[in-house]
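Thread: "does anyone have the structure for this chain?"

Original post by V.I.:
We have the sequence but no experimental structure in hand. Need at least a predicted one for the grant figures.
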Amino acid sequence: MRVLAGLGLADTIIQHDNGIEVPAISRYDSSGSFLGKVPHVSKERYGYPSLMTTR
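Reply from O.Q.:
Generated one for you, tokens below.
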């Protein structure tokens, strides 16, 4: 997000209607078995939320 902020795009992405804030992402293998959870960083620590959005 810092790179996007340097390009002047972070605020646009954060305010975009289809972006959602996520606390973690769960990972599964090709058979659907749970592999683990990847926690995301906090907004308080880094100044930006962890977002998922379309490309």
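V.I.: this helps a lot. The mean pLDDT is 84.
O.Q.: and Residues 9 and 17 are 14 Å apart (CA to CA).
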